[in-house]
Amino acid sequence: MTVSVPGDLQELQKLLVDWVGEFLEAPDASPADNFLDLGGHSLLAMNINVRVQQKFGHELDVRTLFEQSIGETVTELHTRMTGQPAA
């Protein structure tokens, strides 16, 4: 399995927001949105996590995904992936 890390936080954020929008059929999803408020649930979170795992070799923190905005979830993931705080 080839694992890639996006070049920056904005690239990762765009990709994750696009995936959330695709899975939730919410093309207007934004980093400020909450996954659950958009209609997300645990099964969809697992499906998104499979895609993240396949692409990046890391998983989303589902608790953060449920409790925070998509943008905050991406920041947490980026921090773990790069080993350093997001700028």
Automatic annotation (TrEMBL):
Domain Carrier: 6-82
SUPFAM superfamilies: ACP-like
PROSITE patterns per the UniProt record, alphabetical: CARRIER
InterPro entries: ACP-like_sf (IPR036736), PP-bd_ACP (IPR009081)
Any one Pfam family match given in the protein's UniProt record, by short name: PP-binding
Protein name: Phosphopantetheine-binding protein
Organism (species): Streptomyces amakusaensis
